[in-house]
Amino acid sequence: MRIVRLLALLMVGFPAAVQAHNETKPETPTLTVSETGTMTHAPDTAFVTFGLESPGKVLAEAQRRNSATMGSVMDRLRELQIDKELIQTSSFTVSPQYRPPPKRSADAPPASPEIVGYVVSNMVTVEIRALDKVGTVIEEVLKAGANSFHGLHWGLRDEQPVRLSALKQAVAKAREKAAVLSEALQVKLVRVLSVSEGGHVIRQAAPMARMAMESGAGEAPISLGEMKVEASVTLVYEIAPN
Question: Which of 50, 75, 162, 181 has the smallest number of Cβ neighbours within 10 A?
Fold first, then answer.
């Protein structure tokens, strides 16, 4: 009998419990705004990438040529007071060179590829902190034997202060936008529910200078330009009727 009464009580209370569980709080009305802040700053570092391609009938010959010429290039960089810690090999490849296939009739079997030589390629990136030396470095490494130039880009050794300034600007712009929207929508901003940073981007404000690489062309014309540091932020506000 007691068991029957207990089951009856459970049956009565179960629907109420299910109903209470299914009740959900009304969603909090929100307003989301995103903005980007931009700061400009003069670069304080340059990265120059150049290469050396050395051919040879045998691999050892190509390697000797490449090593000898690259040694001259490194000596020249040391004479220009570039620390070895700022010089990095970014690529080193060995490529076999094949004899062009001879003409053959349609029914003749294809000939096996014949290696007739090798090309050893060495690519180096140099970090230059004395920006008045950039043109001289480019000119001197080419004179020392480097036979390919792969580009120049600018950078900041410590970008954190500039990034934080851009982020601070982004937050101020987002708050201003939220205030304008809330006034237009006739609602009030209650509190900030969440803040998310969208990351940052560094751009070159000026196009990369073209390099004068021909012998006797004089020092390469270099234009520093400016760096643009962009940071974005998203704010989510709780709003309420005025």
Answer: 75
Q: Which two tokens stand for residue 147?
A: 């036979």
End-to-end CA distance of the chain: 60
**Over the chain, what HEC string results?**
CHHHHHHHHHHHHHHHHHHHHHCCCCCCCEEEEEEEEEEEECCCEEEEEEEEEEEECCHHHHHHHHHHHHHHHHHHHHHCCCCHHHEEEEEEEEEEEECCCCCCCCCCCCCCCCEEEEEEEEEEEEEECCHHHHHHHHHHHHHCCCCEEEEEEEECCCCHHHHHHHHHHHHHHHHHHHHHHHHHHCEEEEEEEEEEEEEEEEEECCCCCCCCCCCCCCCCCCCCCCEEEEEEEEEEEEEEEC
The pLDDT tens digits of the residues spanning 141-190 come to 999 999 999 989 899 999 999 999 999 999 999 999 999 999 999 999 99
pLDDT band at 217 (very low <50, low <70, confident <90, very high): very low
Show the domains of the chain with their CATH numbers. Answer: 26-43+158-242 (3.30.110.170), 45-103+110-155 (3.30.70.2970)
Q: ∠ CA 160-164-166 to the nearest 5 degrees?
A: 120
